[in-house]
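Let us practice reading a record.
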Amino acid sequence: MPYKEKEIEKRYYSIGEVAEDLGVATSLIRFWEGEFDIIKPKKNRKGNRQFTKTDIDNVKLIYHLVKERGYTLQGARDLIKNDTSAARDKLDLINSLRKVRSFLIEVRDQVS
């Protein structure tokens, strides 16, 4: 049986990588870290933030609520505190629909 390399997946991401993924400034993520209890990146010996997949999902949830849905910080905090799973489920549904939409657009463009 031939040796197959497993795809290496990162455990930790820098604040710069998270900010670039969302298209926001690193200062905004640091600000949200102070405003929302669900963002708790680990810090290495140098003090650099190390975000896990869970941390990134939480940042994306806050981004969705504040930037895409127009919630105030307090409104987003209340929603997350009262029903995090419902908010996350809605975000997952929206992301799934976006993927389907882009797939359909790709198919349409190939047919045209």
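A brief commentary: The chain has four helices and two strands.
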